[in-house]
Amino acid sequence: MASSAPIIVFFLLLLLLASAATNSSTTSSFKPAEELRKYRRVRALLRKINKPPLKTILSPDGDTIDCVPSHRQPAFDHPKLRGQKPLEPPERPRGLNLTGGVGGDDDELQWWSLSGESCPEGTVPIRRTTEEDVLRASSVWRYGRKPAHIVRRDSTGNGHEHAVGYASGDQYYGAKASLNVWTPRVASPAEFSLSQIWVISGSFNGDLNTIEAGWQVSPQLYGDGLPRFFTYWTSDAYQATGCYNLLCSGFVQTNNRIAVGAAISPRSTYNGGQFDISLLIWKDPKRGHWWLQFGSGLLVGYWPSFLFNHLAGHASMVQFGGEIVNTRPYGTHTATQMGSGRFAYEGFRRASYFRNLQVVDWDNNLIPLPNLRLTADHSNCYSVQGGSNRVWGSYFYYGGPGKSVRCN
User: Fold this and answer.
1) Is there a contact between 388 and 395 (Cβ–Cβ < 8 Å)?
2) CA pair distance 50, 52, nearest whole angstrom
3) What residue spans carry the region label Disordered (predicted)?
4) Helices (H), 211-316
5) φ, ψ for residue 319 (rounded to 5)?
């Protein structure tokens, strides 16, 4: 049973604030009944998200990792999954080279597992959600969701800015790339900086389907400035469906060694060592679900096909690159960095990159990405520059510092 201490502290806080409001000569907007309702909604959400663990691991970065029986994770609250268990691994795409990124072993990619701790077989590691996490969100209902925004490359929405490579005009059944991991500075808690793969289908007018995975720095979501491995999905252009990680019934995790939402370690350094991770998203040709592979062959889990309408078939666009949120503090462009915080022209060991860009075709073959296009919403703030060679295949550098002499 959960401790009653937080509830006692909360009611004491209510009494103190109510007393201060009574004694104040100015009009107060404090509403105890409304605050109590909000607190109850927070507690109800935490009970829904945080499942009883078989084992708990304390991470050096302050996270609590719960080892939850795989069939009790949040995904199985969904009516179409209730009473079921995670599926067995599907056939992987032909042509897949099971090698990961550079600079680290798959077993040593996240801080929580660096001490040698692990979750038992039959469980999945889940980052525990706290009251503070939920209260940082704009509302309890919006917790764990991206703001609704436009993904279309010829426009930005709600301050979202991109520097990306993409391909469209064909049928895509998956995408793969390696990307290096950095710790960009995020200037405001309401902003984020991420680097990811998008698998996209549908129109941009309200029924957009996306599947996303990569790394992000999001102080509002996680309470710190660490780069974290994440997933996302939506079937209605970020309006009411979908969420990050395991914060709603959606993504089904199958792996007991990778915690979605946990901090990645090590990271790349400017003019120093480079650390990248390999990500693959592809559609199981037999069952139709979309699977996620991390590193050199760790299957993280899958998005059930029934979550989507358009992606129940195939993707019409794949996209790779960076995204930030610009809230324009003080009326000028944010100083939130994308990638390494350096422009694309600085190249290897300085700028962020995506390399070995590939897609999965209709016959479950992994092939080089054809017709790569590059675009940046505001190239004076965040740029992109690409190429191709025998070692890296199709690749591009991207990123930038945000506010600068060139960007204001």
Assistant:
1) yes
2) 7
3) 69-100
4) 219-222
5) -140, 145
